[in-house]
Please model this.
Amino acid sequence: MRGRLWEVWIMQSVAGLLCVLLGRVNSLWTSIVVMWIFSIFVQAASGLIFGIVVRSDGGNDAKWWNCRCGGDTAFVVFRQ
Model:
């Protein structure tokens, strides 16, 4: 679990640094490349969060349900 938290922290930190870099670039093509790399790190952080949330519930694992929205973004729905 600790390794997953470190991975999320690293991915989100790199995404934050890419936001700062995006504000400093001066060309359109460079900004497009930075946004493209930023989106990869945001999607990676999203997937890592999904892996942490499901495992943090302990004994109530049967209540968590994995959904796919459009085939690209994973999210969790809590069933009552």
